[in-house]
Design goal:
216 residues; mainly alpha; 8 helices; 3 strands; elongated; disordered C terminus
């Protein structure tokens, strides 16, 4: 190999390393070579039996589905260790996020949780029995029922949400902060493309307009 060829190869190697370092510092997603998951195996199987198909969308949707199941189970396990089901935490957290006086109508709660009014009535009844909520008729509109956190409910959700966030942070330990931000950005783009876009703030309470998944 000539000195000129060696110099050219060395320069090329330097450029590649510089580009990789630049991407890493910019927070671009990266992974160790050879890393595979279950979805990779599924894609390889489809490629073998149906090479005419472009199964790449499965790489995204399949991973979203599996990640939801795996993280959801860990979230549920933590909440149960605190004596709560995920739906119970959702109701309490929705009222807490609403801000003082931590009161919403039954309709607003149902909308925020993306469930029917009848199902919400049953959930509220169970939390009433636990002394975590109060329910009363709106003095200004007798057809409107107002649900509010009790002091006990407030104390419980404030304590549990701290551990809940710590648990979710642990679930993300396999990614750098930059990678988490990048993933959040990509998921936001996907959700918006699917119609899950919050309209400009109108001054009304967020829970009535921006439903969130269980455990959030």
């Amino acid at each position: 190999m000539t000195d000129e060829r060696q110099a050219a190869d060395g320069k090329l190697a330097t450029m590649i390393l510089a580009t990789m370092n630049k991407e890493a510092t910019a927070g671009e997603p990266s992974e160790p070579p050879g890393v595979t998951d279950t979805v990779d195996v599924i894609l390889q199987q489809w490629e073998r039996v149906r090479p005419d198909l472009d199964a790449s969308p499965m790489g995204v949707i399949g991973r979203l589905s599996r990640a939801a199941r795996l993280t959801g189970q860990r979230v549920d396990d933590y909440l149960r260790s605190e004596g709560l089901e995920s739906w119970e935490f959702d109701v309490l957290a929705t009222l807490r996020r609403a801000g003082a006086p931590y009161t919403l109508s039954s309709k607003e709660l149902a909308s925020a949780s993306m469930i029917g009014a009848a199902a919400m009535t049953n959930r509220v009844a169970r939390l009433l029995d636990r002394g975590l909520l109060t329910r009363e008729t709106d003095a200004q509109n007798r057809r409107k029922v107002k649900i509010a956190l009790t002091a006990e409910g407030m104390d419980l959700v404030d304590r549990v949400v701290e551990g809940h966030i710590a648990n979710e942070r642990t679930l993300m330990e396999g990614m750098t902060p930059e990678q988490r931000d990048h993933l959040a950005h990509l998921l936001r783009l996907l959700l918006v493309s699917l119609g899950d876009e919050k309209k400009a703030d109108t001054g009304e309470r967020c829970p009535a307009h921006c439903p969130v998944p269980a455990g959030s």
